[in-house]
What we know:
By secondary structure, the protein is an alpha+beta fold. It has helices spanning 16-27, 73-86, 113-117, 138-147, 164-177, 181-193, 228-234, 245-249, 261-272, 285-291, 363-379; strands at residues 7-11, 33-40, 43-51, 67-68, 258-259, 276-277, 280-281, 296-299, 306-309, 314-315, 328-331, 337-341, 346-352.
Amino acid sequence: xxxxxxxxxxxxxxxxxxxxxxxxxxxxxxxxxxxxxxxxxxxxxxxxxxxxxxxxxxxxxxxxxxxxxxxxxxxxxxxxxxxxxxxxxxxxxxxxxxxxxxxxxxxxxxxxxxxxxxxxxxxxxxxxxxxxxxxxxxxxxxxxxxxxxxxxxxxxxxxxxxxxxxxxxxxxxxxxxxxxxxxxxxxxxxxxxxxxxxxxxxxxxxxxxxxxxxxxxxxxxxxxxxxxxxxxxxxxxxxxxxxxxxxxxxxxxxxxxxxxxxxxxxxxxxxxxxxxxxxxxxxxxxxxxxxxxxxxxxxxxxxxxxxxxxxxxxxxxxxxxxxxxxxxxxxxxxxxxxxxxxxxxxxxxxxxxxxxxxxxxxxxxxxxxxxxxxxxxxxx
Length: 380
């Protein structure tokens, strides 16, 4: 029996096609629960949600439903570190060891801060496979990274730092500000913006967290366990126990952020609007421009795909054109997405609980994204 779905929320008339695309994913049986949001000039022109927060289709996805967005969290972590760059407290061209002296071992004394942002530090995984519970032990993980040698010549190639990205930048934020990454984000980003996004989720929010639904089994090509990609993927768990309180409560700044499309787009609106929205300034326009300077443009050693990296963000490219050439983005395992365009002063986010893995890009998100772009172009 086909499940009935409803889509709720606000959508400006000019973006009616976005609602149709979003609702169409449910009608086609592609979604269980999801949200999408678009801001222009810091104002919501789309704020939609629908479906169910559980696999059994018994709990409706509500306005305040949140869920784990995996690597879309990296946008938030990047923003926190860029705020320290903007304040003159973190120098992109200094060595990491200037701020984190213990890091200067095993051939890492010359690694630059900017190489952490651009996934080119040679530390995309861990020398020893880690159990899930180890990821919540900050001291254990940072000690491993202190003692580990790079897997390739730092600064020469990008290799997606799937989990290590959050610990590396997070430790710099901790050393400079005295705050953990989750605390820094909460106090200096989420609260000023009234953004319902969390890196380290308090137990009080558990009742509104949507259940994540694993993707169907996939036939994947064999992966050389000695390759950079193989070593990265084997060294840390990707998929946690979805209802695990320890996972939710930990600060894993590369992958365990919890929010929805509304809150992600709210944070993205600051980056889209020159660093300030509703009187809250987090970055200067110059710092955003600097973050959009290309750091590398090659086949990523871990993802196996061509990626143009800025400082922590993927940049628009021939393979993934944006609304304008200055669009920048990142997404999370299973399909979540956050994209900003400073030319259009637009942010777009998509968050769902049914996980899909498609190397060509999540078809549900891309369908909604295309409708957003068409509506934006029609407004000009």
